[in-house]
Amino acid sequence: MVYHHGVGGPPSHNARPHQMGHHGMEGLDMLDPLTSSSMTTLAPMGETAPPHHQLHGYGAMNHVMNHHHHPGGLGHAPPAHLGHPAAALHPDTDTDPRELEAFAERFKQRRIKLGVTQADVGKALANLKLPGVGALSQSTICRFESLTLSHNNMIALKPILQAWLEEAEAQAKNKRRDPDAPSVLPAGEKKRKRTSIAAPEKRSLEAYFAVQPRPSGEKIAAIAEKLDLKKNVVRVWFCNQRQKQKRMKFAAQH
DNA sequence: ATGCATGAGCG
DNA sequence: GCTCATGCATA
């Protein structure tokens, strides 16, 4: 495992086309699913993805579309595409959820075999020098392995991690060892403190979410006040909750 | 492994 | 203000 410091790759990000927002109802007064109703613990998870999804990027390229895609995702832009309305073909070996799932598992297994940690992989990615690809965090590697990323995110990361794996295994054969081993922690910066939403409040939020996953700003404010939480905390909580529903694990893909 | 957060990009 | 990709902090 090659350590190295000074990482901190600030890759670029993405964007995505539209969003939909609407829903003609607004129960502004029924703001208490827990106490006034009889729902305490429901199980959300009901995706019906509207027409969206995104594409993009890590760095500078890499585009991934909804479904369909070509092999070899990164480092170049795949040529043309079809615009056929009737081109609903192939279980696409690259976007196929099962293919991704299989790869993720293989990846993890081989990674462990190499004696490399998730964090190591993340940093090592920067050494691959792939165009537009910098380091990634342990979190991301972990999520990739456990499929807790969006389908598109998985597709975009797969070629990158695959490249790393091949490289790592190739070097492992040559029994290479790096003579460098500096690792001085930057030290100094301030730590961010993480808000922790208490269980009762979390249960309330879940209940609200089950009723309205996309509350208006005003509604969020009302909920925030009722639960005695900052409005932004509540807003972010809803955003994260929605994002969770879109992870491969939850998305009804298998 | 996962909770809460940031920031880019877009309407 | 949202979605999405991603990460720090933490359990």
Descriptive terms for the model:
254 residues; mainly alpha; 434 Repressor (Amino-terminal Domain); Arc Repressor Mutant, subunit A; 7 helices; 2 strands; elongated; disordered N terminus; DNA-binding
Topology:
Elements: E1 14-15, E2 55-56, H1 97-113, H2 118-127, H3 138-145, H4 151-173, H5 199-211, H6 217-227, H7 231-245
Antiparallel strand pairs: 1-2
Helix pairs in contact: 1-4, 2-3, 6-7
The structure holds a DNA duplex (11 and 11 nucleotides).
Describe the model.
The protein has helices spanning about 95-115, 120-125, 140-145, 150-175, 200-210, 215-225, 230-245; strands at about 15, 55. It is mostly helical and about 250 residues long. Among the domains are: about 95-175, lambda repressor-like DNA-binding domains (434 Repressor (Amino-terminal Domain), Orthogonal Bundle), CATH 1.10.260; about 200-250, Arc Repressor Mutant, subunit A. The chain has a two-stranded antiparallel sheet. It starts with 13 loop residues before the first strand and ends in a 9-residue tail after the last helix. The protein binds a DNA duplex (11 and 11 nucleotides) through strand 1, helix 3, helix 4 and helix 7.
Spatial ordering of strands, largest sheet: 1-2
Measured by DSSP, the beta-strand proportion falls in under 5%
User: How would you state the average pLDDT, rounded?
Assistant: 72
Order of helices and strands: EEHHHHHHH
How many helices in DSSP terms? 7
- Beginning-to-end CA distance, first to last residue: 34 Å
The low-confidence parts are: 1-31, 33-87
Largest sheet: 2 strands, antiparallel
